[in-house]
Amino acid sequence: MAKELQGLRDKIDSVDKQMLDLLEQRLKLVEEVGEVKSEHGLPIYVPEREAAMLASRRQEAQKRGIPPQLIEDILRRVMRESYASEKDSGFKCLNPDLGDVVIIGGNGQLGGLFKKMFDLSGYKVKVLGSKNWHEADALFKNAGLVVVTVPINKTESVIAKLDNLPQDCILCDFTSIKAKPLQAMLNVHQGPVVGLHPMFGPDVPSLAKQVIVHCDGRGAEHYQWLLQQFSIWGASLCPMEAEHHDHGMTLIQALRHFTSFAYGLHLSKENPNIDTLLKLSSPIYRLELAMVGRLFAQDPDLYGDIILSSEENVEMIKRFHARFGEALTLLDKHDKSAFIEQFNSVSDWFGDYSQQFMSESQTLLKQANDSIQRDS
């Protein structure tokens, strides 16, 4: 039996090597595709093409008796790697006559990411930071685009210094709040102004499928090329009014980060053995624990600034605290029927999104489970 099993394993190993050969061929073809896209200014991510290709491969898999989700999982992972490698071919420069791109805070992680993207697109990029602010006037002299990407608590004070930009220079910021920085830019600069919020961190392998929110300030016709350049890099653009953006961020960022902070604080005070928790964890709890732990691997100043960036955030967190207390009274009363009633009420509010989120989370949990290496 052992000999028969080893023979089958040898055949599997041979097939795996063939798969590696095919993956190598595919990635080489992707490099060629990237060169063509770069030459013609085509985006690295085309949703219609991706959707059509996946649908076709799923149909072919079904005909062969292969689970359609299997080939989709494989291809999505391969495409993620492909998007990351396509950027190495560079990108077409949509505005070669722009002048200099000056990134204030370009030595930071997010500023560094965008410096790299502008460099890959052939723009002349200069970095302005606290250590070379004495060079600001010289750097701004030929600026066509000035990007402010500094900590939230410094953004408005930095913007206030930008009263000597060329009239036709585009001024934008990457702050995670938009209303106040946008107004500050409008006050200090009479040229084109746009508020931007990249909804991702600096560790993304590429901008494919990443969302960039843009809030119009002034002179939209003058910065359309910039939005198109983001699209070529693969980003998805989301136009929104600054106030609506900030209301959404109160829930998406401030409340979410604070609840993760509070849960992590609670865990640290309870002081459980994390290895034991991981051994007992289902994929969903491991994923939740990882998302909480991830917060504490990052810069506390950044998250403190995000949470405390507005009184609206604080008031939202206070309302959450009050509703947490209301829910806790159900436990104090051991009122299961009231719990079920509230549960159903929330379920009705989610509506069809509940099933959508169930499906999406099942895919995520399968991937999370695949990555776990259990001890034998």
From TrEMBL:
UniProt entry tagged with the keyword Manganese: no
GO MF annotation terms: chorismate mutase activity; NAD+ binding; prephenate dehydrogenase (NAD+) activity; prephenate dehydrogenase (NADP+) activity
Keyword rRNA processing annotated: no
GO biological process: chorismate metabolic process; tyrosine biosynthetic process
SUPFAM superfamilies in the record: 6-phosphogluconate dehydrogenase C-terminal domain-like, Chorismate mutase II, NAD(P)-binding Rossmann-fold domains
Coiled coil ranges: none
GO cellular component: cytoplasm
Matching Gene3D superfamilies: 6-phosphogluconate dehydrogenase C-terminal like domain, Chorismate mutase, NAD(P)-binding Rossmann-like Domain
Main subcellular location of this protein, as a coarse class: cytoplasm
InterPro entries on file: 6-PGluconate_DH-like_C_sf, Chor_mut/prephenate_DH_T, Chorismate_II_sf, CM_dom_sf, CM_II_prokaryot, CM_T, NAD(P)-bd_dom_sf, PDH_C
Signal sequence, renumbered to the chain: none
Keywords noted in UniProt: Amino-acid biosynthesis, Aromatic amino acid biosynthesis, Cytoplasm, Isomerase, Multifunctional enzyme, NAD, Oxidoreductase, Tyrosine biosynthesis
Highest taxon above the source species: Bacteria
Localization per Swiss-Prot or TrEMBL: Cytoplasm
Pathway assigned in UniProt: Amino-acid biosynthesis; L-tyrosine biosynthesis; (4-hydroxyphenyl)pyruvate from prephenate (NAD(+) route): step 1/1; Metabolic intermediate biosynthesis; prephenate biosynthesis; prephenate from chorismate: step 1/1
Domain Chorismate mutase: 1-90
Catalysed reaction equations from the record: prephenate + NAD(+) = 3-(4-hydroxyphenyl)pyruvate + CO2 + NADH; chorismate = prephenate
One Pfam family in the UniProt entry: CM_2
UniProt domain Prephenate/arogenate dehydrogenase: residue ranges: 99-361
PANTHER family: PREPHENATE DEHYDROGENASE (PTHR21363), PREPHENATE DEHYDROGENASE [NADP(+)] (PTHR21363:SF0)
Family recorded in the similarity comment: In the C-terminal section; belongs to the prephenate/arogenate dehydrogenase family.
NCBIfam families for this protein: CM_T, PRK11199.1
Protein name per its UniProtKB record: T-protein
Species of provenance: Vibrio ezurae NBRC 102218
Gene coding for it: tyrA
